[in-house]
Design goal:
Helix content is 21%, strand content 27%. The chain is an alpha+beta fold.
C-alpha cells in the first residue's frame, strides 16, 4: 500500500500578474487582494511505493525561516532525506510546479534538489517552456536541470515508467500538460497537476479562464473523475487547501 504525504509550501493568492503572495487565512482578507485573485495551496506530494520514493511536482522553491528549502524540511519531517528520492514526476513546468528543480547551496553552487532522483519530464513540455518563457515559465530554474544526466524524457501521447506509473498527455491547462496514474498493485493514485487542482473542480462543471483550453480541461476532469470514482482511485490535489488527498 502506498504511503502519501503532503509537502506544502503554504497558502497563497495569485492574481493576473501570476505573482504568488503568501496568505494567512486567520488574518488576511481575500477581497483585499487584487481583483480575480485565486486562493490556493502549493503542495507537492511524497508517495512511497515498494519500488520508489516519489515526489510529484516540486513547488515554488521557497526557503523556510531558517533558510532551508521548505521541500527538504518537509521531507525530513516525514523521515526522508532529499537523497532518498528516486523519482520526481513533473506534470508541467509552470513556476509553481517546477520552481524547485534545482537550488543554490551555501556556496552559491547550483545543485539538483534531489541528487539521486530521475526527473521525469514530458519532452514537448520542456520544449514549449523554453520557447514560451516568463512569466509562466522560469527558464533559469529549468535549464540547469536539463543540462544534467538526471532527466528521463517522456515521449508520446501516453506511456509507462517502469511498468507501473502511467503518464498521459492531456493538454488542457497548458498545451503539453500530462497526468499520472500510479498503480502499485494495491492502490491507484492519480495526480492531475493543474488539470485537476482541487476537489471542488472534480464535482462541478467549471471552465477556468486560466486554462489554455478550458473546455478540454473540463473534459479531462470529467473523464478521470468518473473512472477514478468507479475504480476507487486516490486523488492528489496540488492546490486544495482542505482536501489534498481524497476519494471521489
Amino acid at each position: 500500500m502506498a504511503k502519501i504525504y503532503t509537502l506544502s509550501e503554504g497558502v497563497f493568492t495569485v492574481g493576473h500578474d501570476k505573482a504568488f503572495l503568501s496568505f494567512n487565512p486567520a488574518k488576511d482578507v481575500l477581497n483585499e487582494r487584487s481583483t480575480g485573485s485565486l486562493l490556493l495551496e502549493v503542495q507537492p506530494f511524497l508517495v512511497i511505493t515498494d519500488k520508489d520514493v516519489i515526489v510529484l511536482d516540486t513547488g515554488l522553491g521557497f526557503n523556510n525561516n531558517d533558510g532551508i528549502l521548505q521541500i527538504h524540511d518537509n521531507l525530513r519531517l516525514h523521515g526522508y532525506e532529499p537523497a532518498s528520492v528516486t523519482k520526481v514526476l513533473l506534470s508541467h513546468l509552470h513556476k509553481d510546479h517546477a520552481g524547485c528543480l534545482v537550488f543554490k547551496d551555501n556556496n552559491g553552487l547550483v545543485m539538483t534538489t534531489f541528487p539521486n532522483a530521475e526527473y521525469c519530464i514530458y519532452r514537448p513540455e520542456a520544449d514549449y517552456a523554453l520557447q514560451k518563457g516568463y512569466p509562466s515559465y522560469h527558464t533559469k530554474d529549468i535549464e540547469p536541470l536539463l543540462a544534467t544526466s538526471q532527466v528521463r524524457w517522456l515521449d508520446g501521447e501516453e506511456g509507462f515508467i517502469d511498468g507501473y506509473i502511467q503518464f498521459i498527455h492531456t493538454g488542457g491547462h497548458c498545451p503539453q500538460h500530462i497526468v499520472y496514474l500510479i498503480d502499485d498493485g494495491t492502490d491507484k493514485v492519480f495526480f492531475g497537476g493543474d488539470e485537476a487542482p482541487q476537489l471542488k473542480q472534480m464535482k462541478i462543471k467549471y471552465v477556468a479562464k486560466y486554462d489554455y483550453d478550458g473546455k478540454k480541461a473540463l473534459a479531462v476532469r470529467e473523464k478521470y473523475a468518473e473512472q477514478g470514482r468507479r475504480e476507487g482511485w486516490k486523488f492528489l490535489f496540488y492546490h486544495d487547501i482542505k482536501h489534498p488527498i481524497s476519494f471521489l
